[in-house]
Amino acid sequence: MKENCCAEPEKKSKTFKISPTALIIGALTILTLVGGFVLATNSGPAKLGGGDGQAYTDHTSFEWGEININGGNATHEFAIENRGTGELELANILTSCACTSAQITIEGVVSPYFGMHSTSSWVGKVAPGKTATVSVIFDPLFHGPTATGPIERLISIKTNDPKNENMEFKLTGNVIKK
C-alpha cells in the first residue's frame, strides 16, 4: 500500500538518561552558584545605621612639605571625635591612590588597612565622647624612583552622622630626591 504523501513522518521519541552522579554534580554546581551570589550580594561596602553620633575633627587637611622619595613612608594622624549622644559609625574608608593607605584605631582596637580599591564590610563604632584615630600612610616610592613632584591624596570615610555623612581628609606634599 502506498503511503500518504501528506502524512507527517513518524517522530521517534528520544529518552535521555541522567546518571545519579551527573545529577548530584549538577545540583552541587547550582548550589555553589546560588551560594556565591548570596555571599556577593551580602559583602561589599558596609551599611551604616542611623544614630545620634556627631563627627568632629579639628583639621581635615595636612601639608607634609618636602617628602624625600628615599626617606621611607610619610605618615599623619587625624582624630575624629564623637560629640553626639549615640554611637558614631565609621565605614567604607577609601584612599585616592594605591600609594596611600589608611587605618582606624578606636579604643586600642585597630582596623584592617584600607586603600584605593578596598571594599570592606568593616564598621568602626565610636562611643559618645570617645575618639577614633585615622592613620594615613603614604609610600613615596610606590610609583617608582622617578615619581617626584607635588602630590595630593584624599581619604574618604562614610559616617552615620546625618550632618557629616562623608568626611574627606586631604594630604599634600612635594616628593623630592635628596
What characteristics describe this protein?
178 residues; mainly beta; Immunoglobulin-like; five-stranded antiparallel β-sheet; 1 helix; 10 strands; 39% strand
Care to describe what's here?
The chain has 178 residues and is mainly beta. The chain has a domain at 55-176: Immunoglobulins (Immunoglobulin-like, Sandwich). It contains one helix and ten strands; from the N terminus they run αββββββββββ. The strands form two sheets. The protein has a five-stranded antiparallel beta sheet with strand order 1-3-8-5-6, with no helix packed on it. A five-stranded mixed beta sheet has the order 2-10-9-4-7, with no helix packed on it. A hairpin with a 6-residue loop joins β9 and β10 (166-176).
Short description:
The protein is built from 1 helix and 10 strands. It has a 5-stranded antiparallel sheet, with no helix packed on it. It has a 5-stranded mixed sheet with strand order 2-10-9-4-7, with no helix packed on it. The longest helix has 23 residues.
